[in-house]
Amino acid sequence: MNKNIRKINIIGTSGSGKSTFGRQLAAKLDIPYVEMDALYWKPNWQEPSDEEFFANLEKALQQDSWILDGNYNRTAPIKFAYVQSVIWIDYSFVRTLYQAVKRAIVRSISQQEIWANTGNKESFRKTFFSKDSIILWTLKTFKNNRVRYQALLNDPNYSHIHFVRLKSPTQAKAFLESLD
């Protein structure tokens, strides 16, 4: 990847490792890391209006450089107007599901606040016994996300964007090491 690329969106199914990779990439390139979930979620798991969310996103993308972690497909017109590169974390279904379950368990046990000043925490009930389960979300969206992201790579409307598809943790590690 060209080191002059300074506006990057990390995409992938929930649990794929977007945040971990995004933080590592931001540290490696010494540029700000922006987590879309942190822009989205309000205290007590309240959701903003699209107008509020889009305004928060627009403001975050006014910086000279950033690593943007997140999908939110309805934000494509906003983020793709700025982005120079999209990195798709496309690990196998089994790997992604394993990571989603592991993360949910760790978060449920630790009870750490997920996004600053929200009070939002994972719980076993929400994770395993709720229609809002992140694990259920991963199961429901994995296949459709693959189809959607593959189409994105081939969409002539986005030919100005440099796409990178990482299919394994080994490829992700090699990609990061190539930036030295």
Automatic annotation (TrEMBL):
Transmembrane segments: none annotated. Gene3D superfamilies: P-loop containing nucleotide triphosphate hydrolases. InterPro entries: Cytidylate_Kinase-2 (IPR052922), P-loop_NTPase (IPR027417), Shikimate/glucono_kinase (IPR031322). Pfam families: SKI. GO terms for molecular function: kinase activity. The keyword Metal-binding does not apply. The keyword Transferase applies. Keywords: Kinase, Transferase. This is Shikimate kinase. It comes from Vibrio porteresiae DSM 19223.
